[in-house]
Design brief:
Elements: E1 3-7, H1 22-40, E2 52-62, E3 73-82, E4 87-94, E5 99-111, E6 116-117, H2 122-129, H3 134-138
Antiparallel strand pairs: 1-3, 2-5, 3-4, 4-5, 5-6
Protein name: Acyl-CoA thioesterase
Keywords: Hydrolase
EC number: 3.1.2.-
């Protein structure tokens, strides 16, 4: 299953060449990832996904320039790997006809009070598994 986020484009996202600046795409990915994590937080007193997280790695392939328009762009996000203390999410930024970007991010849950990474809880892993792509599941992308 994939999480879908409708990301609005802002006039200030454009660079001098008239398309979305490469650094702005990282903000689009962040917005989609935060929306994804907020929707996964189960509520009812659970603390899952309510702490912090840090980005350990971004990998981005820019496929095609994106120019300003009033319609939002779609950011699809899914999980490709779940380990004991991190997860990897993949993204596609696109619309109905065009793929603009493919990316992945390694995210580490982080305890800001203790100032150190923490392990994913069983509850968090269960939620993330719902978004684990089929190819990753067949390769055993869930660890510890």
């Amino acid at each position: 299953m994939r999480h879908t986020y409708a990301c609005p484009l802002r006039w200030s996202d454009m660079d001098a060449f008239g398309h979305v600046n490469n650094a702005v795409f990282v903000r689009y990915l962040e917005e989609a990832r935060i929306d994804f994590m907020d929707r996964l937080a189960p509520g009812n007193g659970s603390v899952s996904f309510t702490g912090g997280s840090v980005v350990a790695r971004h990998e981005i392939d820019y496929v095609r320039p994106l120019v300003h328009r009033h319609a939002p762009v779609t950011v699809e996000l899914w999980v490709t790997k779940i380990s004991a203390a991190s997860m990897t999410v993949a993204y596609e930024v696109k619309d109905e006809e065009t793929l603009y970007l493919r990316a992945s991010t390694v995210v580490v849950p982080y305890d800001f009070e203790a100032e150190r990474p923490r392990r994913l809880t069983a509850e968090e892993k269960a939620y993330l598994k719902e978004y684990l792509d089929d190819a990753a599941q067949s390769k055993g992308a869930v660890a510890g």
